Every structure is written in structure tokens, then in C-alpha cells.
Amino acid sequence: MEGDPFAGIGNGTHLDGKMVQTFQKNFVKVQDILDQNRLLINEINQNHDSKIPDNLGRNVGLIRELNSNIRRVVDLYSDLSNSFTKSIDVSSEGDSNGALKSDGKAGHKRNRPG
């Protein structure tokens, strides 16, 4: 797929379509949470600047929500990292066993004398 950042990884290793969809879905989730965080931060700043006691009290809940969102983003990135590592490991196992890579060449390296 042209323009697909996951189409070719490393030495001709390719991720399957399902894996790419999973990555894209998780990146969309992360972006949605980050967009929500931007709104929370803006509201927190407005409440802080207003110096109104009720608004300042509301910030406690908003900051808790922000912290929770940050934890969710960290968890999503962790899951993405683990999934990506597993997919690369599985792909490279096929290459190291002499399987043909996407370019049609075997995955073995020759040792050169010397």
C-alpha cells in the first residue's frame, strides 16, 4: 500500500492487514484522548485564571480525569509497542528459517571468509 507507514518494515518484512488496522485503530484512540486532554487543560487553565472557588474546586476532578487519560495513553502505547515487537519477531522468525522474504530472496546470510 503506497503511503502506508507499516507496509514495509526492516529487511522486507511486511505486516498483515489486520495488524495494520489494529495499529491504526489504537493510534486513533490515542489521538482522541490527546484531543480530549487539550480541552481539559484549557478548561483547567480557565478555571485557574478565574480564581472562582467553585471553578478551582472543579479542577480537582478535571485533573484526575486528565491523569486517568494520560495513564490510558501510556497503556495504549505500551500495547502498541508489545504488538509491534511480537509481529516483527514472528516475521523475522520466518526470515531466519530460510523462508522467502517479500523480495523473493531467502533469509539466509552467507558467511564470507576472511
From TrEMBL:
This is Protein ELF4-LIKE 4. Keywords: Biological rhythms, Nucleus. Belongs to the EARLY FLOWERING 4 family. It comes from the Eukaryota. InterPro entries: EARLY_FLOWERING_4 (IPR040462), EARLY_FLOWERING_4_dom (IPR009741). The lineage of its organism: Eukaryota, Viridiplantae, Streptophyta, Embryophyta, Tracheophyta. GO terms for cellular component: nucleus. Its main location: nucleus. One of its GO terms (biological process) is rhythmic process.
